[in-house]
Each structure stands twice: as structure tokens, then as C-alpha cells.
Amino acid sequence: MELSVKKIIYAVQLILIPMALVLMRVIEEVIRGSLSFETISEIFPVLIIYFFVSNIAWFFMEEKLSVAIAKDKEKMNRQS
């Protein structure tokens, strides 16, 4: 089963990066010794802004990404 490039980028954008942000916040709070639900919940506004900006970027860049992927596939087919 081959995943498309756009699906991989979208998964990284919407799953892995937010999880990494939350994980970094938890590690930071553990190091400081002040881990609580209140301090972890401070990351949520950052995540909301991140999702908002990344979805707008995806909206405007999706067509350019499709064109770039098509060009890359064409180059790969010519080389084969």
C-alpha cells in the first residue's frame, strides 16, 4: 500500500508536529518540576494558532504542491 506524498505531509502537519509540541511542553514542565494540567493546558492556544495557520497555508499551497509532485513523478518516469 503506497501512501501519497500529500497524505504523508498532511499527517505530519496535523498529527506529528502537534504531538511533538505537546511532548516538548510536557518535557519542559517535568524538567522544571512544575508539571500539572494547568501548565500543560497553556499549549492549547499555541496549537489553535498552529492549526489555523497551517490549514490556511495548506489551502493556498495545495495546488502548487500537486503540480510539484506531478513534475517529480514525470522526472522519475523519464529516468526509469
Describe it for me?
With 80 residues, the protein is an all-alpha fold. The chain has one domain (9-79). Helix content is 85%, strand content 0%. α1 (5-32) packs antiparallel against α3. The mean pLDDT is 87.
In short:
By secondary structure, this protein is mainly alpha-helical. It has 3 helices and no strands.
Number of domains: 1
Q: Quick one: overall form?
A: elongated
- Number of helical stretches of at least 4 residues: 3
Q: What amount of the residues lies in strands?
A: under 5%
The N- and C-terminal alpha carbons lie at a distance of 21 Å
Low-confidence stretches: none
Radius of gyration: 18 Å
Secondary-structure element order, N to C: HHH
Overall pLDDT score: 87
Give the tally of β-strands: 0
Classify the helix fraction into a percent range: over 70%
Biggest beta-sheet profile: none
Structural class: mainly alpha
Spell out the key features of this protein.
mainly alpha; elongated
Task: Produce the secondary structure layout.
Layout: H1 5-32, H2 37-40, H3 44-79
Helix pairs in contact: 1-3
